[in-house]
Amino acid sequence: QQKTLYVAGYGGSFEKTIRDEVIPGFEQSNGVKVEYVAGNSTDTLAKLQAQKGNQQIDVAIVDDGPMYQAIQLGFCGKIEGLPADLYEAARFKDDRAVGIGLVATGLMYNTKVFAEKGWAPPTSWNDLKDPKYQKQIVIPPINNTYGLHTLLMLARMNGGSEANVDTGFKIIKTDINSNVLAYEPSPGKMTELFQSGQAVLAVWGTGRVQSFANTGFPVDFVYPKEGAATLLTSACPITKPNASPLASAFIKMLLEPKTQLVLLKDYGYGPVLKSVVVPPELGKMAPIGERAAKLYTPDWVIINDKREEWTKRWNREVER
Amino acid sequence: MAATADTRDGRAPWALTAPALMLFVGVLVIPLAMTVMLSFHDWGQYKGIEPVFILKNWREIATDPYYAEMFWRTFRIALLTTLITAMFGAPEAYILNRMSGRWKSFFLLVILGPLLISVVARTLGWALLFGGNNGLVNKLLMSLGLIGSPLPFMFTETGMVIALAHVMMPFMVLSVWTALQRLDPQIENAALSLGAGSFTIIRRIVLPQIMPGVLSGAIIVFSLSASAFATPAIIGGRRLKVAATLAYDEFLNTLDWPLGAAVAVLLLVALVLIVVGSNALIERRYAEVFR
Amino acid sequence: MSFLELDRVAKQFGPQTVVDDFSLTVGKGEFVSFLGPSGCGKTTTLQMIAGFLDPSRGAIRLEGRDLTAMQPAKRGLGVVFQSYALFPHMTAAENVAFGLEMRRVPRAECRERVRAALEMVGLAGYEERYPRRMSGGQQQRVALARALVIRPSVLLLDEPLSNLDAKLREDMQIELRQIQRNLGTTTILVTHDQNEAMSLSDRIVVMNQGCIEQIGTPQETYERPASAFVSQFLGKTNDLAATIDLSATPRRLAAGSWSVPAPAGIAGPVTVSIRPERIGFGDAGIAAKIVTRIFQGNHWLFQCESECGPVIVIRQNDGQPQPAEGEAVRLAWRPEDMSLRGAGGVA
Amino acid sequence: MSFLELDRVAKQFGPQTVVDDFSLTVGKGEFVSFLGPSGCGKTTTLQMIAGFLDPSRGAIRLEGRDLTAMQPAKRGLGVVFQSYALFPHMTAAENVAFGLEMRRVPRAECRERVRAALEMVGLAGYEERYPRRMSGGQQQRVALARALVIRPSVLLLDEPLSNLDAKLREDMQIELRQIQRNLGTTTILVTHDQNEAMSLSDRIVVMNQGCIEQIGTPQETYERPASAFVSQFLGKTNDLAATIDLSATPRRLAAGSWSVPAPAGIAGPVTVSIRPERIGFGDAGIAAKIVTRIFQGNHWLFQCESECGPVIVIRQNDGQPQPAEGEAVRLAWRPEDMSLRGAGGVA
Amino acid sequence: MRTNGPLALIFHTIFVVAMLAPIVVVCLVAFTPEGYLSLPTTSFSLRWFRKIASYPEFVHAFWVSLGLGALSSLVALLFAVPAALAIARYSFRGRDAIAALFLSPLMIPHVVLGIAFLRFFTAIGMGGSFTGLLVAHVVVVFPFALRLTLAAATGMDRSVEMAAVSLGAGGWTLFRRVTLPLILPGVISGWALAFIQSFDDLTMTVFLATPGTETLPVRMFLYIQDNIDPLVTSVSASVIAITMTALILLDRFYGLDRVLAGKSDPGR
Ligand SMILES: Nc1ncnc2c1ncn2[C@@H]1O[C@H](COP(=O)(O)OP(=O)(O)OP(=O)(O)O)[C@@H](O)[C@H]1O
Ligand SMILES: Nc1ncnc2c1ncn2[C@@H]1O[C@H](COP(=O)(O)OP(=O)(O)OP(=O)(O)O)[C@@H](O)[C@H]1O
Ligand SMILES: CC(C)C[C@H](N)C(=O)O
Ligand SMILES: [Mg+2]
Ligand SMILES: [Mg+2]
């Protein structure tokens, strides 16, 4: 009897990549059927919670924020034998999950509109305050890692820290809020707002901007001079009775250099392995090499502690 | 007059509703009961859902004016949407019903059109028409000099109501149309001969008779609008949350299901009260039509 | 003066012509009835006059103005529909009040007139009843009250009394006649009841298959029918086969053992028409046997088998003993009571 | 043999008693008519017999078995509804065929019987017509054909001919009578038309306000009415105020200038009832003046103002000259044609 | 018969234009030659329609949606029609409560329903099955079938049914031959709305769909995870085109007005 391995992950081109490049090989070498359960991070997490104690999913691929929640809620098992040349930033506590791709949070802007209007490309997080962008900025909300990063960066630039984000809230509320068209977490919606010309500037990640630019739409990514934050796409094996050892095997396959390069090419993910050599034509936006080294990695231990409170505050103060 | 004799009436309605009741008890009541239970559970960032019985969530909803604001907006939008669909949908159904056979079915289908394409694509259409400076309608109106700056549509309550009314319209039109099928055209002629104008005929003669249809449409539209998620989320955005988007947020982003469940249960209870109340009110007001 | 004028009106439903070449002039205050077999186009014509159906051809003029140019609501019509067409969601009183409200009659007057109208049709006490909870005849009376209460200048009545018993029907007929006289209401009545048509109308329009067969006063149409159809349709008629015997001098009209001097101008086989109420039982006349004898209250109806074929006879129920079924009788009538038709037409 | 039995049946709608204490036994093959003023409960009673309404009290038995225990579909009834109740989504032929299909009549036979039934009601050629496209009378005839085609053992007819013209109506009456005779169908007819009731029925049930006033043969009910109501309701009656003069010997019954020897056993003021068709114009009798003269085809109706009050007179249209309006006449009748009522009842 | 006046026709035109405008825009975008959402200005292109072919899962998802919609709305009708008749005709104790229960799926946000069903089905071991998805859809579309049937059944002329009973029709035959044709406009409308509602549902189905049973909206939703592009519009346009073709064929071979207005005489 053939076993089935359920892998939950993003839909869209990510799904296509995994289906085309990873799954066939894996099925062949392990004699197993892989079912891909597509869904965005929150959907996957909700499914994990709903099926708690009776999990169907074996491997979950989600953003780092939700991954921390998943770990906290005890959904993730331990991965044995992770490669040694993993960037430190891609590691999770106790190896309960692992980053499979590196993304930087920065600014995206519409190059065509900027050129037409004679605006200089943005360079700083402070550009979000510029009144000329009135109702033309999109920032993902706080329950999305990009939004959280925005808050953190603004706080840090103004003397705050993970432990104290008051200044961040204050700036968003007073200086930025009026410029924001929408706090939009959905990538599809984000691209639509750009394509319909309603938004020209946004906070987003390199992976997303790369694939958006790949469609031919005139956008570019900016690493703000104050620094960009790291976001990890991560994977973990799900704890369940008689968990399949193949779950870890599947995750490790995602970390193989060949897969890492595919993810970089198709999806703009910076590799998480130091040893991966990036061909120059692939690395225009992604955080690799020096850019990767300069990234700021937030302290999730502190953040997780405060996140519930920040969310409430964000909902009531910013999005109102 | 009952077709079957009065004595046999006792069992007949139960026999007829039994299959549906069994279905509902089997697969809806239990999940709903589980959801109600859920709303009394505790939740924490680290511990997840704790199956204890506390009133924390309900207390929070009751005391934090944030929730009142969301619910107030939800019902305001649902009511406006219902009024708009009734105001435009009922006359349209009436006009449709007076068209000749082929046109009638053609336009009926045209009106069903919005439902055939997914919310995502549909709201995309709205964005292209009204979104920002590049929206077609806005461009047109601005080039005609009718408006100075683009009409705000996306991320406004007006936009939400219009987009909701657009999707909900078929529900109203079809419900009213169904009721119109039963009308005897001679009755309108009778009113005409007594000196009633078109408007009076519609108001005094047609409307009361199609009240079951309008009521059905209104109930569907009101309930759907108040519990709609996609349209408010896409058109309204996160800054104009309604009960459903609030519940969505708690369920999917925060993972605080007990709180989300409390919001949903409250919405359900409020809607049931409103719908059953207005249903009874209208059935009583137009008692003779409903028998 | 021609108040209402129908000028070669025709109506088609699809390929079928249902009313054809219908021309009629109705004077102000006149009472005209449409009589004709079921399906002959009476309702259709009435609906065209009311403006609910558009004529396929021809014109309808009210006081000289084309009807189609007038708003139906402005025509001042009172209509009673064959199917009543009551407003099901209104009580009897509300139904009747509707037309008054449309005319902005003051509340108090309105209430009083509704009361009076319902009382007139014998429905006092039924004000609050909904149509669905009334009997057929009660609904019909509400429909009548609703049309009359607005004192229309033209009344169009489509079988308005078909579900009423004889007594009530007569009361209503008297009511109708009075209203029509007092208010000068021009009235068009569609009815299948000849007595009703005859006792109420100034003129009767006899229709057949969408066409007018005859227009005339009740007595004209009954006593001098313009066609065989009219004579058969109005009342009963016996048609007997007879021959005019040219060999005899003077010429004689003979049927069986019966014969009378023949009128001039016709010869050969003829049809003798004679109304059943003009036939008497006597000692002379054609021989017949009574097949059935039907009691009809104020008269008796006899179906006889005579030597010239079946004959029906009507005799007033004057309390005298009547011939029994199976009895042999002789049937006789006055020569002036019969009419003769040759191969083709009326003599 | 009692085939159908109603035993003290009553029906209430809410607080209102619409039929009360209704007892009737109908034999197999009998033809019974319900006659009564509009709203007296005829339809309600019929619907109870059909099993569409449950009696509030009392029992209905068919061949000794309680009706409520039988499925309505199993009772073998043919029903014509006052409102026709045709299936709007079926053509005329489909409407008529429905009952046959329910009885699994073979296709070919079914087609033939439908054709015959429609032809019988004069609707050959209307097979494919939908009810909404037919005239009122045509619809009614489809309803009749639909009920007859299944050759039911009990026929319940609620004003089945109310929208037909006299001619067609008579044809249908003959048809009905024949079917009833040939098949032995027990028939109950609700009608407002007395002639119809009288010419068709074995017995007539006269109802008033939910109660039975009289049950009897047509002639019984007409000639020997059990109550003032019956005598007024069936046909027309003149009620004249008169007095019995005890001072004269022999005692005389007098009204105005007219007087006849009085019967025994009654005294003082009385009411004289006399049918209008029993009154003749003569040289003697009470003095009167003709107010209106109404032509009614086979007879004339005279409304007279006599010295004893208004009197109506019916005279057969025998072709003789009739008194004109305004003419002074004398009215006479045979003593045996009148009936006398004292203060209270029938003498 | 009275026809529509000019005012009514103007109203109708505006109404139809407003209903269609967003859809027409979407269909136009489907013909863009560009890689992103834009109205084609100079040239039309079918590239986004061709692209559908390279996503067989869209086609598969379309069939799943079609099957699920047809099946669930049909099953819902089987339950809803008798219930609607009972509610329309009888006043019995608990009638209002039952009616409210039957309508409740309309009143709960679908996210909540989705998660409630997911928990429930997982608990009873039906998690991830097509049956589970089907049952959930039946429940969710049930109110439409119920309400529209109800609108048709209230105030129906009962004497017609009595006539059928008197002619020997009972139970099922009475329903099939008489009652159903009379309420058919409501039943068909109810079916149409139920079908569309099932066909269109995303928020609940996301939780219940498993690989292989993903519906078209779920597929499209997943597709726009990273990027929205004109493929969404070309898929929508194709759905519309398929629907219209099906309806035109139906009209040709059966007659739409017969379906929508019931079989009774169309012209009145
Ligand atoms: N559903 C009902 N609810 C209350 N009252 C009713 C209902 N149906 C009939 N009635 C009343 O019951 C009485 C008898 O009605 P029914 O229909 O039996 O009269 P009918 O003798 O057939 O009269 P018609 O000759 O006018 O048809 C009427 O006064 C009527 O108003
Ligand atoms: N909508 C329609 N479509 C087609 N034919 C129709 C329509 N309405 C009536 N007819 C036909 O037209 C003819 C005349 O109908 P109309 O209703 O005028 O008859 P009528 O004289 O009123 O008869 P009745 O005395 O039976 O009411 C009938 O043969 C009928 O079948
Ligand atoms: C009626 C549905 C199409 C509504 C949709 N689910 C929304 O939330 O907008
Ligand atoms: Mg007619
Ligand atoms: Mg009746």
UniProtKB/TrEMBL annotation, chain B:
Record PROSITE patterns: ABC_TM1 (PS50928)
KW Cell membrane (keyword) present: yes
GO terms, biological process: transmembrane transport
Classification via CDD domains: TM_PBP2
Membrane-spanning parts: 12-34, 75-94, 106-130, 161-180, 214-237, 257-282
Membrane topology, from the record: Multi-pass membrane protein
Signal peptide positions (record): none
Location in the cell: Cell membrane
GO cellular component, one term: plasma membrane
Sorted UniProt keywords: Cell membrane, Membrane, Transmembrane, Transmembrane helix, Transport
Sequence ranges assigned to domain ABC transmembrane type-1 in this UniProt record: 71-278
Pfam families: BPD_transp_1
Family the entry assigns: Belongs to the binding-protein-dependent transport system permease family. CysTW subfamily.
Protein name: ABC transporter permease
Organism whose genome encodes this protein: Bradyrhizobium valentinum
TrEMBL record, chains C, D:
Its biological purpose: Involved in beta-(1-->2)glucan export. Transmembrane domains (TMD) form a pore in the inner membrane and the ATP-binding domain (NBD) is responsible for energy generation.
Pfam families xrefs: ABC_tran, TOBE_2
MF annotations from Gene Ontology: ATP binding; ATP hydrolysis activity; transmembrane transporter activity
Entry similarity comment: Belongs to the ABC transporter superfamily.
Keyword entries, A-Z: ATP-binding, Nucleotide-binding, Transport
Keyword field contains Magnesium: no
PROSITE patterns assigned: ABC_TRANSPORTER_1 (PS00211), ABC_TRANSPORTER_2 (PS50893)
Residue ranges of every copy of the ABC transporter domain listed in the record: 4-234
InterPro entries named among the record's database cross-references: AAA+_ATPase, ABC_SmlMolc_Importer, ABC_transporter-like_ATP-bd, ABC_transporter-like_CS, Mo/tungstate-bd_C_term_dom, P-loop_NTPase, Transp-assoc_OB_typ2
Gene Ontology annotations of biological process type: quaternary ammonium group transport
Assigned GO CC terms: ATP-binding cassette (ABC) transporter complex
Protein name, entry field: ABC transporter ATP-binding protein
Superkingdom as given in the UniProt entry: Bacteria
UniProtKB/TrEMBL annotation, chain E:
GO terms for biological process, alphabetical: transmembrane transport
ABC transmembrane type-1 domain location: 62-250
Record-linked Pfam families: BPD_transp_1
Membrane spanning stretches: 7-31, 61-85, 97-121, 133-153, 174-196, 231-250
InterPro entries per UniProt: MetI-like, MetI-like_sf
Family: Belongs to the binding-protein-dependent transport system permease family.
Name of the molecule in the record: ABC transporter permease
UniProt source species: Bradyrhizobium valentinum
